[in-house]
């Protein structure tokens, strides 16, 4: 779909409180996905929005929902299904920021350590916007007295299965990629949707992203990582790893070397994960060491560099990882660490992306000077993890 380019949000026909909120939040010009989605959404059409990570999809569906809420205020007006707890909190915060002057009430309904009774109390207060993960939403639909979706006017889906919801509502389906699962969701839940696809091919990186690789033997990966981070210590960096063990170990190594690093992985409690994410987002720590699962849906505006410590096994994973930087037109940098076992994977990745990664310049002498210290710190980190695991096992036995 193509619409005339909107030079400002006021060109899109949004209500005055939203225009004022956007000005206060320093949003000046709509992105392509926002400019093309908002007008048909305001007219009541279902939407399929396909756009790269970081292109402003949340605002693209939040603004038309809040505009229509301003015209017709009611409780349980919109439901947003989120694939992760962290993303749910971010979406809710976006609704509350944009709708603050309108008195918008948003609640987050997610699993994990969240207290169901407290969630039920919040639902009983009749919020306008509900942001939920599918499992916990299902629990409340089955067990929370008086809670239903019968009045729902808007539904936003993100990697969610079909739910029993009313026919008279608008549905917005947003994704970074148009996969087979998204197509199934379209058939299951949308009526004559407007399709807005601003991604020119299946797995795309944005033009403002500079993409590099470094070659390093597997045995020296920790040394190379420390060298890279040391060379860009003032930047905000996300290091992606494949396993929880790597996230634990590397965060200890980096902290021991006096870098401000925090881990984000699936073995952390919900409060620990939110604490780590908020510490990174606020700038108290400038390095986040994260697994793919724990980091899904992260929304941090100013990430300068993404380092792939482990080579992603698919172009889809690569695009989602590097999409944490170079967001909303900003410049960014990604570095892929390639060992002697990863060359073939990198070649397949380049073929899928239809572009060659550039070799990142390094100084062999500086790397050599780091080896002894990093090896020693790595050994200490491994021992610390073993001791922590043994202590946890002892506590479980008691």
TrEMBL record:
Residues 7-35 form the DEAD-box RNA helicase Q domain. GO terms for biological process: gene expression; ribosome biogenesis. Its main location: nucleus. One of its GO terms (cellular component) is nucleus. It holds the Pfam family Helicase_C. It comes from the Eukaryota. Residues 224-368 form the Helicase C-terminal domain. It comes from Agaricus bisporus var. burnettii (strain JB137-S8 / ATCC MYA-4627 / FGSC 10392). InterPro entries: DEAD/DEAH_box_helicase_dom, DEAD_box_RNA_helicase, Helicase_ATP-bd, Helicase_C-like, P-loop_NTPase, RNA_helicase_DEAD_Q_motif. Residues 38-196 form the Helicase ATP-binding domain. This is ATP-dependent rRNA helicase RRP3. Transmembrane segments: none annotated. A motif (Q motif) lies at residues 7-35. It is found in: Nucleus. Gene3D superfamilies: P-loop containing nucleotide triphosphate hydrolases. Keywords: ATP-binding, Helicase, Hydrolase, Nucleotide-binding, Nucleus, Ribosome biogenesis, RNA-binding. GO terms for molecular function: ATP binding; hydrolase activity; RNA binding; RNA helicase activity.
């Amino acid at each position: 779909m193509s619409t005339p380019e909107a030079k400002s949000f006021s060109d899109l026909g949004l209500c005055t409180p939203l225009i004022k909120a956007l000005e206060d939040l320093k949003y000046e010009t709509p992105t392509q996905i926002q400019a093309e989605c908002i007008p048909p959404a305001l007219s009541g059409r279902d939407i399929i929005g396909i756009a790269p990570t970081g292109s402003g999809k949340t605002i693209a569906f939040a603004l038309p929902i809040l505009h229509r809420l301003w015209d017709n205020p009611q409780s349980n007006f919109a439901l947003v299904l989120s694939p992760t707890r962290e993303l749910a909190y971010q979406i809710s915060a976006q609704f509350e920021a944009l709708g603050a002057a309108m008195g918008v009430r948003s609640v987050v309904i997610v699993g994990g350590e969240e207290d169901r009774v407290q969630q039920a109390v919040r639902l009983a207060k009749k919020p306008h916007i509900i942001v939920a993960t599918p499992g916990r939403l299902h629990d409340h639909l089955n067990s929370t007295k008086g809670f239903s979706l019968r009045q729902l006017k808007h539904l936003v889906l993100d990697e969610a299965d079909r739910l029993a919801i009313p026919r008279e509502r608008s549905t917005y389906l947003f994704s970074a990629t148009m996969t087979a699962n998204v197509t199934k969701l379209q058939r299951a839940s949308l009526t004559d949707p407007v399709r807005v696809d601003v991604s020119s091919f299946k797995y795309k990186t944005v033009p403002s992203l500079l993409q590099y690789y470094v070659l390093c033997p597997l045995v020296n990966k920790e040394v190379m990582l420390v060298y890279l981070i040391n060379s860009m210590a003032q930047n905000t960096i996300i290091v992606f790893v494949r396993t929880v063990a790597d996230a634990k170990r590397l965060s200890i190594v980096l902290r021991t070397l006096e870098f401000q690093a925090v881990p984000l992985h699936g073995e952390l409690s919900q409060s620990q994960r939110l604490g780590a994410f908020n510490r990174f987002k606020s700038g108290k720590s400038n390095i986040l060491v994260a697994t793919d699962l724990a980091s899904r849906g992260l929304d941090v505006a100013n990430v300068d560099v993404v380092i792939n410590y482990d080579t992603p096994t698919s172009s889809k994973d690569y695009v989602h990882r590097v999409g944490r930087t170079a967001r909303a037109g900003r410049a960014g940098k990604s570095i892929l660490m390639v060992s002697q076992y990863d060359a073939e994977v990198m070649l397949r990745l380049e073929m899928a992306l239809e572009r060659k990664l550039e070799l990142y310049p390094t100084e062999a002498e500086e790397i050599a000077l780091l080896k002894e210290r990093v090896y020693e710190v790595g050994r200490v980190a491994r021992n610390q993890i073993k001791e922590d695991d043994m202590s946890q096992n002892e506590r479980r036995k008691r």
